[in-house]
């Protein structure tokens, strides 16, 4: 408090000794770095001190601050904006990094029920899943290469501009602030057709953030609900397929406010160690990413082409992670060895057991393929109708040789347009009812692997059971609604800011933009349809998110209505737990009366 009249100073100091208290404030600015934040309390405005941009702090001595607001100030200290929230001071909140114009609140995201036992760790002690109930803020201060990349994400001939720029990274979580030297570059191909670009941040100097050295931030440019991918990764995780999970973050780079993003892990050795091998890096084996060119082909068909590694053109398969300790591979054809082995084994299995419903046939496949996670992945694809992934086109998926278990498994990633119910160029007319052959009609692609797999009666029976249990336990409106509503509560205050950010972005790149509104967000979460409209939207969302889950879930429920869930999948334990519940009620009744 400033005292101007000399005579009152002593009185005021005395009063201060009796009454004054220090009030602490920490707040994240969402304006660019030409602005600072201030605290407004009792009609006084105190400038805050830059801590680690965009975080500002203040320690204010005062008799009693009970209500306050954050304000945006320009360089001369003039208030240019005031937040809409009335805040009440509390010791708890004073320890948190509050965010300008965002309510400080506790949200719990109800977990999706897990329909199956799973053998994967899905995170390790030093590489835990990201917390999903807060929104981080990431600011990168980068060199001039960033501007070049932002303005020209494609070079001549549609080549990707993947130049890296050096940056200082600041990541602000609810309670902490982290700073690193690092780099950033663009990721993906399809995602950079949009004006709101997707980035990867890498951390240098052997430093780690939550055990990570890289973070991908995905723009969600074509999703009015900003949560389809998030909910889908939760679904993969619930059924027990390891995927790169995510959390939300607001992204600012230099003076650009990019908006709300989904932060996800990159598919790398550390992630594989944590999510597949319980943290043991020595166990990480060779990993291949599958690439397909649709509709002309070639597709990564997983067909055996011979023992010559040259035949496995890097166009169809790229080696993403090599296990240099793989003695057998080193003795043979090297880094393509495991891929060749897989295609060979699968081809032999198919030839021998295609129509064979014996245990032997199942066990022969189980020896080299994780059947469970493969079918679970296919079930999630069926339910979500992802269009660029494994079943439809053999894309956005890796084939991983798990040397710990000595089998192969698939690792899916990047789930664009999931749960939108878009027909797209490849699905047939009644795709929305079809839970079995919805993905099979792609031109120039015979679906050698997926059709071959499901042609075995035991495998297709198992697919049916997984589908039936997943829709009954998890993928239905009753179960998923509270999950979706909780995410909506978490991000709602960021939605409008996010959609508007793209219009204020300084860039010469003329990428696609979807001008969604807060209303579009609310509508499309429920059953509002948002169709392409060339002046404002480049993407279709023909179903609302909840509506889609309801329709798709019910369709796949109807076709699996007769499927009996075997006891080992928890049918027994479920009825047993009901039995226990009734027993305890009876005992309670007897004790009480
Ligand atoms: C501070 O002010 C608030 C509201 O004006 C009042 O409720 C509270 O009792 C005051 N606290 C102290 C310590 O004077
Ligand atoms: C980026 O940083 C690396 C060292 O980490 C350095 O070698 C390189 O020259 C830097 N690039 C620019 C453009 O400053
Ligand atoms: C790539 O895929 C195409 C189409 O399936 C196939 O004809 C071709 O042989 C594959 N190339 C290699 C080298 O694997
Ligand atoms: C604060 O956020 C609300 C939405 O939650 C928005 O309507 C309002 O315009 C924002 N105010 C400022 C000053 O940014």
TrEMBL record:
Ribosomal protein found in the keyword field: no
Signal peptide: 1-20
Pfam families named in the record: CotH
Ranges annotated as spanning the membrane: 571-592
Keywords: Membrane, Signal, Transmembrane, Transmembrane helix
Keyword Nucleotidyltransferase among UniProt keywords: no
Protein name in UniProt: Coth-domain-containing protein
């Amino acid at each position: 408090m400033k005292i101007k009249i000399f005579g009152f100073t002593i009185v005021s100091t005395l009063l201060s000794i009796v009454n004054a208290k220090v009030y602490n404030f920490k707040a994240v600015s969402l304006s660019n770095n030409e602005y600072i934040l201030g605290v407004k309390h009792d009609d006084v405005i105190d400038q805050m001190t830059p801590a680690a941009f965009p975080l500002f702090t203040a320690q204010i001595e005062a008799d009693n601050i009970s209500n306050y607001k954050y304000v945006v100030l320009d360089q001369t200290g003039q208030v240019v904006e005031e937040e809409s929230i009335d805040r009440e001071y509390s010791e708890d909140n004073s320890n948190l990094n509050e965010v300008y114009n965002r309510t400080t609140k506790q949200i719990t995201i109800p977990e999706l029920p897990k329909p199956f036992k799973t053998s994967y760790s899905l995170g390790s002690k030093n590489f835990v899943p990201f917390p999903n109930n807060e929104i981080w803020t990431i600011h990168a201060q980068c060199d001039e290469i960033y501007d070049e990349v932002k303005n020209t994400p494609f070079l001549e001939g549609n080549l990707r501009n993947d130049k890296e720029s050096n940056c200082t990274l600041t990541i602000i979580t609810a309670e902490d602030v982290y700073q690193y030297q690092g780099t950033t570059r663009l990721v993906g191909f399809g995602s950079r057709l949009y004006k709101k670009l997707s980035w990867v941040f890498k951390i240098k100097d052997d430093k780690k953030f939550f055990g990570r050295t890289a973070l991908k931030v995905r723009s969600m440019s074509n999703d009015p609900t900003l949560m389809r991918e998030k909910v889908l990764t939760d679904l993969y995780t619930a059924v027990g397929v390891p995927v790169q999970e995510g959390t939300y973050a607001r992204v600012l780079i230099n003076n650009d406010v990019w908006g709300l993003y989904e932060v996800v892990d990159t598919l790398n050795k550390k992630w594989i160690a944590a999510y597949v091998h319980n943290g043991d890096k020595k166990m990480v084996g060779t990993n291949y990413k599958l690439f397909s060119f649709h509709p002309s082909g070639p597709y990564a068909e997983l067909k055996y082409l011979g023992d010559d590694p040259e035949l496995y053109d890097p166009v169809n398969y790229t080696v993403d992670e090599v296990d240099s300790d793989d003695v057998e591979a080193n003795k043979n054809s090297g880094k393509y060895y495991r891929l060749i082995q897989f295609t060979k084994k699968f081809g032999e299995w198919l030839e021998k057991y295609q129509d064979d419903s014996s245990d032997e046939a199942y066990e022969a496949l189980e020896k080299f393929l994780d059947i469970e996670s493969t079918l679970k992945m296919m079930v999630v694809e069926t339910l979500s109708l992802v269009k660029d992934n494994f079943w439809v086109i053999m894309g956005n998926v890796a084939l991983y040789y798990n040397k710990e278990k000595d089998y192969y498994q698939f690792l899916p990633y990047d789930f664009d347009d999931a749960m939108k119910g878009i027909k797209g160029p490849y699905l047939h007319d009644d795709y929305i009812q079809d839970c079995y052959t919805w993905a099979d009609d792609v031109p120039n692609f015979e679906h050698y692997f997926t059709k071959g797999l499901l042609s075995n009666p035991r495998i297709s029976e198992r697919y049916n059971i997984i589908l039936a249990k997943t829709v009954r336990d998890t993928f239905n409106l009753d179960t998923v609604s509270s999950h979706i509503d909780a995410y909506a509560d978490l991000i709602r205050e960021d939605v409008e800011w996010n959609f508007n950010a793209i219009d204020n972005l300084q860039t010469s790149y003329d990428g696609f933009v979807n001008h969604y509104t807060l209303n579009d967000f609310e509508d499309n979460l429920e059953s509002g349809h948002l169709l392409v409209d060339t002046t404002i939207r480049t993407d279709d969302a023909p179903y609302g998110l909840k509506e889609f889950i309801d329709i798709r879930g019910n369709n796949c429920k109807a076709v699996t209505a007769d499927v009996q869930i075997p006891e080992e999948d928890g049918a027994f334990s479920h009825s047993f737990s009901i039995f226990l519940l009734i027993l305890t009620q009876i005992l309670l009744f007897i004790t009480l009366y």
